[in-house]
Amino acid sequence: MTADLIVQAADDGVLWLLAAGPAGAAATYWAFYRYYRNTDKSHHFERDTIISPQPVQGGEEKIDHISRTRDSDIDGDNSRKFRERVQRIR
Amino acid sequence: MEPQQPTFDGPPLSLEEELAAAKAEPEPKPSIETVNESLKDGLNRCPKCGSTDVRLRGSTGMLVCLFCRNEWQEARVEEEFGLGEGIEELEGTVIASGAENIVADVADQLTFKCEACGAEVVVDTAHALNARCHWCRHTLNVNQQIPNGAVPDAVLPFHLTKEQAVEKIREFASKRRLFAHGRFKKEFVPENVLGVYLPYLVIDARADAKYWGKGEVQTRRWTEKKGDDTVTYYAADVYQVARQVNFTVDDLTIEGSAERMDFGSENTNNIVNAILPFDTKNAVKWNASYLVGFTSEKRDLNVDALHPVLEDQLLSIGRSQVHASLARFGRGVRWEQEQIDVGGSRWVSMYLPVWLYSYRQESNGLLHYIAVNARTGETMGSIPVSQPKLLLAAFTVGTFLEGIAGAILVATA
Ligand SMILES: [Zn+2]
Ligand SMILES: [Zn+2]
Questions:
Q1: I want to staple B355 with a disulfide (CB 3.0 to 4.6 A). Which of B64, B66, B372, B373 is the partner?
Q2: Ranges assigned E (strand) in B227-296
C-alpha cells in the first residue's frame, strides 16, 4: 500500500517522493508513541453523558462572496473541534 | 458576593429595591442533606448480628458481615435524593451536603469514642476514613460529614476484583512490549495494583449555549491550465451563522482533586480521565465500610473552583449538539464567539472506584499509570517507551521507504 502511495506521489514530483522516507519515519514514531503513551486520550463527555437537547435554533445570512480561491475549505474550521474555545460573550 | 457599593451618581436604593436584591441572592445552603443518620456513632453494625466487622464484597457490590455472612447494601442516592429528576427545573447552584466547601483549617485528625468499649480512637481523615479500635477490634467509620471535605455524599462500590484488574493490566501491557522501556519490563508487577476511591463531583445541569461564526458554501469549482499543471479554483458564498441550543446533562463527572485535574506534560493524569464514564446511577449512600481494604484520595476542589470547568464542558457539549445543523456549509464553519448560560446545576460529591497501577520512570521522573475502571473494566494506560528502540524502528521504516523511492526514481529516470 505504501508503495502505491509512492507511485502516485511520483506524479507530483521528485521532491514529494524523496520526502517519503522522513515522513514514513515520523509517522511510524508517532503511531507507536501514541499507542504506548496514550497522551491524546480523554473521556468523551460530549458523547458519553446523558444529554437531552431541545431542537437547535438559529439562522444564517449571506454576507460575502468569494469569487476565486485555491482554498478548498474555510480558514480555521473548528466546527468539529468542540473543545477549542473561542471568544466568550458574557 | 460583593456587597452592594453605594453609588455617587444616583439616588440610593429604595427599601423595596434593597429587599428585592437581598431576596435574589439567598444564602447558599445545601439543599440536599446526605448525612447517613443511622451511622452517627461511627459504628456500622451488621443489622443482623450487630458485629462491626463489615466490608465490601466486590463480586456483589454489597456489604458483608464477616461474622455472620449477612449481606446488605445502602440505598442508591439516585432515588434517595431524587438526583435524576427535575434537571429542567434546576435554578442556581444546588450543592449536596457532601459537596460543600472544604474548610482548610479543620484538622485532619478525628477522635472517636468507641461505642463498644469507650476507648478513644484517632482517625487521620487525610489518609483513611476508618480505623479499628485497638482494644476491642470494632471498626470505627467516619460517617459524619465533618466540614473538611473528607466525606462525600455517595460512593460507587468496587465491582471488579483485584484478580480481574491484574488480568486487565497484564493484557494492556503485554500488547505493548516491543518498544517498552527495558527497566519497566523488568520491574512490571501488576499484582502491585491498588484499589483507590477517587473523588469526583457529579453534576446535573441545564444550560443555554449560543454560537456565532462564519460558514462557507461552495458555489463553483473549476480547473485552469497553468503551464504543465492544472490548478483547481473555487467560488463560495460566505454566511454569518448563529446557533442556539438548550439542553440538560445528567451526571456529568469532573475530577475533584487538583492533582488529577492537572493534565500537564509532567504527568499522565489523562489516563485516569480516559476510563470514565462510571455507572454513577448505581452509587449508594455514604457508608465508610465500603472503603475497608481500599485507599482513597481526598477532594481538594470546591464547587466554585470547578464552575469554569463545567462551563467549558457545557460549551463543548453544545457545540457537538449543533454540529449536525451545519451540513449545508460544505466548506466548513469557523466559530468565532460563544456564550453559555447555566440556568441551574446540582452538585453531588462521589467516590468512584479505580484500580490503579503506577510506575515512576527513573530516567525522567514521569509517573505512568495503568488504570482500570472498577465498574466497567475499561482500561487505559501509559507505558514508558524505550526511545532508542523506537527511533531505530522509525529510522528503519524511513530507510526502507526511501529505498523504494530511490528505486522508482532510478526506474523512471
Ligand atoms: Zn452479622
Ligand atoms: Zn473499642
A1: B372
A2: 229-255, 284-285, 295-296
Taking residues B309-328, what's their average pLDDT? 96
What residues of chain A, 26 to 45, have a C-beta less than 8 Å from chain B? 26, 28-29, 32-33, 35-39, 41-43, 45
- Evaluate whether B274 touches A43 at the Cβ level (below 8 Å): yes
Q: How far is the CA of B66 from the centre of ligand 2 (A)?
A: 17
CA of B65 to the centre of ligand 1 (A): 5
To the nearest whole Å, the CA of B403 is away from the closest chain A CA by 8
B241 neighbors B215 (Cβ within 8 angstroms): yes
Domains of chain A by residue range: 1-37
Asked whether the beta carbons of residue B244 and residue A57 sit closer than 8 angstroms, the reply is yes
Please tell me if residue A67 touches chain B, with a CB cutoff of 8 Å: yes
Please answer whether residues B317 and B309 qualify as being in contact, where contact means their C-beta atoms are separated by less than 8 angstroms: no
Best CA proximity match to B193, nearest among B158, B141, B154, B220: B158
| Rounded Cα distance, B39 and B143, in Å | 6
Cβ of residue B129 closer than 8 Å to a chain A Cβ:
no
**pLDDT confidence of residue B136:** 72
- Report residue B132 CA to chain centroid gap: 31
Cell of B357: 497501577
Q: B324 and chain A: CB distance < 8 Å anywhere?
A: yes
The set of residues, in sequence order, having a beta carbon less than 8 Å from that of B272 and lying 6+ positions away, is B198, B255, B260, B354, B356, B369, B371
Residue A82 bridge partners (DSSP):
none
One-letter amino acid at B48 equals: K
From residue B31, alpha-carbon distances to B119, B136, B300, B305, B390 in Å are 36, 39, 21, 20, 55
Q: How far apart are CA B119 and CA B35, in angstroms?
A: 25
Residue B289 has pLDDT above 90, yes or no: no
Q: How far is the CA of B54 from the centre of ligand 1 (A)?
A: 8
d(CA B133, ligand 2 centre) in Å: 5
| Residue in B closest to A63 by C-alpha | B239
pLDDT for residue A18: 80
Q: State how far Cα B82 lies from the chain centre.
A: 21
pTM, 2 dp: 0.82
User: Which of B83, B230, B337, B402 to substitute to test the interface with A, most A CBs within 10 Å?
Assistant: B402
Query: Does position B47 have pLDDT exceeding 60, yes or no?
Result: yes
Burial class (CB in 10 A: 0-12, 13-18, 19+), B409: middle
Q: Provide DSSP, B53-92.
A: -EEEETTTTEEEETTT--EE-PPBHHHHTTTTS-GGG--E
Give the pLDDT mean for B159-182.
Answer: 93
